[in-house]
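Box 4.2: Ligand-aware structure prediction
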Amino acid sequence: MKTQSILLAALASAPTALAHTTFTDFFVDGMPQGDGVAMRMNSDVAKSGDPIPSLDSDDMACNVGGTKGVSRVQPVKDGALLTFEIRSWADDPSKESLDRGHQGPCAVYLKKVNDATTDTAAGDGWFKIFDHGYNNATNRWCTDEIIDNKGLLSVNLPKNLKGGDYLARPEILALHAAKEGDPQVYTGCAQIFLQSNGNLVPETTVSIPGAMKYNTPSTNFDLYNKPASEYVIPGPPIAKLTSSLTQTADTAALAQTNGLKPADCILENANWCGKEVPEYSTETACWASSKNCWEQSEVCLKTSPATGSAGCKIWQDKCNDIDNKCNAGQWTGPPNKGKVLTPVKKDVDVGLILGTAGGDAAAAAAPATSEKPAPVASSSSSSATLTPTPSPSPSPLPAKETAGNGYGSHKGVSAPATAAPTPKGDDEYDGQPEDEADSNDSDDSDDSDDSDSKPSPTPTQVPKTVSVTDGAATPAATPASYKGVGYKKRAMRRVVRRY
Ligand SMILES: [Cu+2]
């Protein structure tokens, strides 16, 4: 058992250390929803951080295995701010979000679905609500902005979209190996229920896979030898929205019936929920409840996605507590019956809210796009593309989120006035996650140490589940001048080594 547990621990810690990046979780109006909650990630945990293997595969929709949904769907208000988080180590938000050698555009797509838990995601129905490529004025790519914003990518949902289930899909395209035929796409999907009375729908939708193809200027771009200002963002322009003719004015659409957190869920680990064990007052019943507890623990561990099993450890503490009390002859329980153990989530300042830059080229006059002085706040660009609607027209977003320089701040905390860099230098990512030597980082392994052993008491470490909350307070800045030179070799080496 011990050997097996060590082996599993090694297996579990290795993949995250080799990761490029993963969309691990999302926030709604600055509130973290929990690691992996309502999030479709690569179901192959060992490869969770890898780029999508093929642009032509169904994996492009919601990542590998993402044609299958998860059980939760998170409610969001009309016009909500969605924030997606990326991590190089899916289970450790304190580490870097993405190696800086990854440079390229990003986008966010939506797809209206009947049931976000079962929709297969791949195929038609996707529309783009945001993109951001290269900003000439700042010499920065979308990835630069995300990295310097603690790995957070935020987008305001267009107001008055038709309510109901959606898949929300962030996308990053890293171009460092594009010229060599290896455009690296990172994606994932949030399952959301939009609480909206609106009736806006996209005029046109696209298929994913299909919106991004190999051997196009967007995907075989020579990052190191071509001016980034010439770069064309892949996929369709930001969708024009129009009133749905088939408006059913059903307020029933506002009532979410699917994917809600079970009322008796006292602990979450991604989409797993722990339920209180049966009450007991005899020794036999005490141990029966202990068994119940450990059985739930096993399910928790088995269903842990790449974001880890921190919640399962909390659950094991509960089981150990029951065991100790059974042993001590305290046969009335369970202790702290019904107590919610899910760590309290705190509001996060999501920092930068990017506007579009270098994108939407099809919609705007072509050359002008790349001359844009600074990122335009997303609200202005999206309201420009919204088709006027009969009833409530898309209302402008609060001013605090639309600072003219493109740095909005959801919580009104001011973001950097310029993209002024704090030089970190090239060695910033020397010896960083990519090297195998790091794969047994001691702080990586503790998440998995005891994970498979059940009644072995694990009285240590308080798991750091919501540490993202500490992390996101101050947007850090990094070298704007950094052009990815010097990374190239590493990037190539990496490609050779892995693909
Ligand atoms: Cu990578």
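In the box above, the bound molecule is copper (II) ion. The radius of gyration is 23 Å.
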